[in-house]
Structures are given as C-alpha cells and as structure tokens.
Design goal:
This is Exported protein. There is one protein chain. Helix content is 18%, strand content 31%. The chain folds into two domains: 48 residues; 162 residues, no CATH class. A five-stranded antiparallel beta sheet has the order 5-6-7-8-9. The termini are far apart. Strand 3 and strand 4 form a beta hairpin. The protein is an alpha+beta fold.
C-alpha cells in the first residue's frame, strides 16, 4: 500500500460521522496507529542519514574550499611543513616553504626553496644556485616532485652588497610568484610570475618584471615581459639569464 493511501485511509476512517462507544474506541485506535506510523517514518529517515559516509571539507592556504566529497583511497592527503623535512635529508637547508593550491584544483602542494650543501671545490666561491621545487602528496601519501628549477633563485652571495638575493615567494590558487633582488648603489629586482597550465599539466612563465634603480639619483627603469611576448616558457627549463637585461645607461 502506498504511504499516501495508507494515511488517507487512517484520516478517512477517523473522520467518519458514525457515533457511539464502539466507533469512539475504533477512532482512538486508528489515531494511535497514525502517531506510531509517523514516529516510524521519522526514525527511518534519521537512520538513513546516519548511515551515509562522513563528508570532509578541505581548505588549503590561499585557496577556496573544495567541493564536499568523501575521502577515498585516491584522495590527496593534507600537507604540512613538517612533511617537507625529508627534503633536507641530504644536508640541504630549507630556505622557504609556501603551501597552497598551486594547480587551482583544490589540492594542497608546496613551493620549496632549498640550499644544497656547500661544494668542497675551492673554485666554487659563490656557491650553488638554490633549488626551487613544487611538491605534493600522491594517492599513497608519498611526496612527489611536480616541477624543479635550479636557475631562478641565485646563490647566497649573488646579491652583492645587498646580501642574499632571495626575497620571498607567494602562492595563490593556480599560480605563484618568486622575487629576487640585490646590488649596491644600483639596486636590481626580479618578479617571476608563473601560472598553472592544465593543457600541459605544468607551470609556465606568465609574466616577468625586471627593474633597476640608482639609490643616489633616484633614476629607475623597469620592464614588464608577458607570455604573449616571451612565448611558452616552462618552469623546469626557465633561465632568467635568457631574458632581456635592464640597464640605466
């Protein structure tokens, strides 16, 4: 019997115009049955909701909340800076780590800047360039490298009188920025903006800002190079020295 027919029968029977003790007893019994039926439906609904899998909302730094979905075997696990300690097992130094949604797809990844161990070669006065890594967890929870570049961040002594040329990195959904600077009287700076390109499942240079200024005269020059001008330059193969230089003279 359908639920609507069932309740209709109960209401119809209870609203009969017949009178007398027998009918009153029957009417009360039907009303009791109706109350018990409604209680059964409510309990069934609550049990059904309780049986559903738990839902987890994931939100990473610099990103909007992802769609709600149960975590399964292939789900990306959360990532913290403590998880990156294994990257220094070879003696490297962790200079910086920024965690965010690097692909714009709601999954946490990390931008890491590493300083490799100093070389024993006495001719290597300036030391090695730093290594920039993009890392994330795979379906088994293991860290894997998404991209690597050994040219963007110069060595610790490459900033001249200004000191360490690495300034900072910033992560936003689907993109990130690396800033370097140095010099003495002539102060130079670079801003490299990268954007995730789903068609190649990687990151490409979106814009490069290069500038120089004379700290005594106040003269300044800056150039903005877009991807429309530069073409497609992948993160893995990017070398800042391949870009046009900025000079005051």
């Amino acid at each position: 019997m359908r639920t609507s027919n069932f309740f209709g029968a109960l209401f119809g029977a209870a609203s009969s115009t017949a009178t007398g003790p027998a009918h009153l007893t029957r009417s009360l019994a039907l009303r009791s049955t109706l109350v018990l039926s409604l209680a059964w439906v409510a309990c069934f609904s609550a049990a059904s909701l309780a049986a559903q899998p738990s839902i987890v909302r994931v939100q990473t730094a610099g990103s909007a909340p992802t769609s709600e979905s149960p975590q399964g075997p292939g789900s990306v696990q959360p990532l913290t800076k403590d998880d990156l300690k294994g990257l220094t097992a070879d003696g490297s130094k962790l200079l910086d780590a920024q965690i965010g949604d690097l692909t714009g797809q709601g999954n946490a990844a990390a931008l890491v800047v590493l300083e490799r161990p100093a070389s024993s070669d006495p001719s290597a006065r300036e030391g090695p360039s730093r290594t920039l890594l993009l890392v994330a967890r795979d379906g088994q929870g293991q860290l894997r490298t998404l991209a690597q570049n050994d040219k963007i961040v110069p060595c610790a002594r490459c900033g001249g009188a200004a000191g360490d040329p690495y300034s900072y990195s910033r992560v936003a959904p689907g993109r990130f920025t690396v800033v370097t600077e140095g010099g003495s009287r002539e102060h130079w700076w670079n801003e490299f903006h990268f954007k995730y390109a789903p068609e190649i499942n990687g990151w490409v240079l979106h814009e490069a800002v290069r500038g120089v200024s004379d700290t005594k005269t106040g003269r300044k020059k800056q150039i903005n190079l877009s991807s429309q001008t530069l073409g497609t330059i992948k993160l893995n193969g990017f070398d800042p020295s391949s870009l046009p230089q900025v000079k005051l003279k």
